[in-house]
Amino acid sequence: MPLPLKTRFAILSLVVSVVLIVVKFYAWVLTRSQAVLTDAVESIINVVASGFALYSIYLASLPKDENHPYGHGKIEYLSVGFEGGLILMAGGYIFYSAIQALLHPHPVARPDWGIALLAFTALVNLAVGFALVRAGRQHHSPALVGDGQHLYLDAVSTFVSCAALGLVMLTDNLLYDALAALLLGVFIVVNGYRMVRRSVSGLMDEADVKTVQQVVAELQEHRQPTWIDVHNLRVVRYGASLHIDCHVTMPYYLSLEQTHEQVHGIEQIVAQEFEVPVEMFVHADPCTFAACSHCHVADCPVRQHAFTREIPWTLANVAKNERHVLGNE
Q1: 192 and 137 inside one domain
Q2: What gap in Å lies between CA 256 and CA 115, rounded to an integer?
């Protein structure tokens, strides 16, 4: 049985990271450059992070079970946070070593070889990183996207190291080497923080505004007269899957069978909008006479007030846990 595409990309990332870290440390042995050492240390994180990403993708692919009724997709956010935490620790070490290099500069040997080796690793990282990000977005895998973005960052830091070696070679000024390492430390820490922030957002179920807006727009486009209002709409992402639940106010006199058909129709409409698995639960609320003024049902047998106008569904009113009332939208 062939491995899933996400798993194959994760294995590719791990293998490439191992090969490139050997090349970078060889470049450091040749040059004894602080910037090259900084780049090589940051690449150690690539190996650890790629291994963890591979494991998280395996776990995320497991089916739901009694202990994990929503599946195992959250592990991918943990992978991103783990990688970000490692990057922050590497950034701390890089700051320390860069300051030491500023205080006690040492000669850089064979910068031309260092530039050639590092440029090769940067191009490979760019190519693999692009492939990982593209595959991660296509398959809605935060772990693959995070791993690919880390390779982008690694390529950028490598190009900075190449520039530092080039300046040292042209000017014989060793400060360029230490300053480049310090600049990379700042760059790495900032991006490590961003990865941790993205991980925390996913683990804490922070609202995905874009996805919620998609759901709202789809419901508004296919709006039926019996769907008087939609409220308490919540969207949670579990790895590549979406869990959506909401309340829909419907005429109280509909039979259980009619209500079930309406609910099923809502679930189908929303599920067709997304390319990922969608699990949706709709709670049907019976209407009250306060809804008559914005209810579209033409031949309502119990109407108490004439229809006045429709209340458009927006991100603001569907997220609230309250029925819609004219003048209070």
Answers
A1: yes
A2: 72
Q: Are 140 and 266 members of one domain?
A: no
Strands 229-238 and 241-250: antiparallel
Pairing of strands 229-238, 278-286: unpaired
Could you list the beta-strand ranges (E) of the chain: 229-238, 241-250, 278-286
Strands 241-250 and 278-286: parallel
| Alpha carbons 202 and 212: distance in angstroms, whole number | 15
Q: Are 248 and 229 in contact (CB under 8 A)?
A: yes
76 in a structural domain? yes
Describe the chain by its helix, strand, coil percentages, rounded to 5: 65, 10, 30
Domains contained in the chain, number: 2
Specify whether the CB–CB gap between 6 and 57 falls below 8 A. Answer: yes
Instruction: Tell me how far apart the alpha carbons of residues 62 and 4 are, in angstroms, rounded to a whole number.
Output: 12
pLDDT digits (tens, 9 = 90+) for 198-214: 777 777 666 678 888 99
> CA–CA separation, 247 vs 72, rounded Å?
26
Shared domain for 138 and 107, answered yes or no, is: yes
Q: Which residue has the tokens 């430390």?
A: 185
Report the helix count and the strand count for the chain, using DSSP H and E. 9, 3
Q: What is the domain range of residue 214?
A: 209-318
Are the C-beta atoms of 309 and 296 separated by less than 8 Å? Answer: no
How far does Cα 14 stand from its chain's mean position?
20
CATH code for the domain in which residue 310 is found: 3.30.70.1350
Amino acid at 230: V
Strand-pair partners of 285: 249
* Same-domain status, 220 and 179: no
Tell me the Ramachandran region of residue 239: left when phi exceeds 0, alpha when psi lies from -120 to 50, beta otherwise.
Answer: left
**21-72 pLDDT per residue, tens:** 888 888 888 888 877 877 787 777 767 777 777 777 777 777 777 787 777 7
Identify whether residues 223 and 124 lie together within a single domain: no
Full-prediction pTM beyond 0.70?
A: no
Q: Do residues 113 and 173 share a domain?
A: yes
Q: How far is CA 79 from the centre of its chain?
A: 11
